[in-house]
Design goal:
Largest interface: A-B, 63 and 64 residues
Mean pLDDT of chain A: 83
Radius of gyration of chain A: 20 Å
Number of strands of chain A: 3
Largest sheet of chain A: 3 strands, antiparallel
Low-confidence stretches of chain A: 5-22
Strand content of chain A: 5-15%
Oligomer: homodimer
Order of helices and strands of chain A: HHHEHHEEH
Shape of chain A: globular
Chain lengths: 151, 151
Amino acid sequence: MSKCEQSAKPRSQRPDGAANDRMLPLAERLRQGDLLAAACPSRDVLKHVTSRWGVLVLMVLGTGTHRFSALRRKIGGVSERMLAQTLQWLEADGMVARLAHDVVPPHVEYSLTPLGEAVAVHVTALAEWIERAMPAIEAHRRAKATETSAG
Amino acid sequence: MSKCEQSAKPRSQRPDGAANDRMLPLAERLRQGDLLAAACPSRDVLKHVTSRWGVLVLMVLGTGTHRFSALRRKIGGVSERMLAQTLQWLEADGMVARLAHDVVPPHVEYSLTPLGEAVAVHVTALAEWIERAMPAIEAHRRAKATETSAG
DNA sequence: ATAAGTACATACATTTTTGTAAGTATCAAA
DNA sequence: TTTGATACTTACAAAAATGTATGTACTTAT
């Protein structure tokens, strides 16, 4: 039901376009998202996954099941409100599974679904690349700063 | 100069931690970013790269050099203001190169730096995964919707 | 008895992000 | 001559994200 046809742009504009969508039936391919189209629902998923805390939640859950407060302790700076919110987004998108044991005090476990594991791979790769690239990025910033002031 | 040591958590908590940072001198490894630490500058880079338009800009520039208005036409829904803003963030982080020909009317070309090509790989992989996963995600949403109303 | 931990929801305030509209200087087409 | 294209910037406004504080209902530790 996802119609992203607002932007009458054929996907064949991408020089490497043909290689990707092998072996999917035509019907499936038409339902695919197109992030370049303004009104495509895939934009919401992207928003959740790449949200400020979404990336970090996915990263941590990629290392295993966590309880709510364990997540909160690992992810520096999240508020309870935002952590709960983010987990609900990701749960609604089918990336995170919530398992509540009916005891008191509450005990809830969060883990990745198969869908979640797949995104987490990409998100974690991106995050780790950034962590490693930080020295280079800061070097670039310093270079430009001096170039502007003393150049 | 990036000190993310606020969160006294050793990186060895990650089960696969040892495999990644081979062949980097110790001094470099200490300057790495830690996205789980609240005050780490790597969070800003993540913010720029995963910003609403940052992902899409990187994706499009990954297919080749583009002029400002060409980018604007391809990325459905960006305002001029936001496109300019996003390009400046990515330029400051060393991901995007700006080449202005001094003519009138203006002619400016944007392309990826080597750093930018590296992020673009990850960002594009994530984006394309989401596009392909959309049918599954929407199926999951529908399943939960009926489960809640009729279950 | 008091405080802290558990997993949240909710109201409210603030901050951040994003959009809209207008302006700039110049050229070319209608 | 008016319009449109180019690549922006700036001021202002609206929308969205995020934070803070509080409450819940119960247990354990102090």
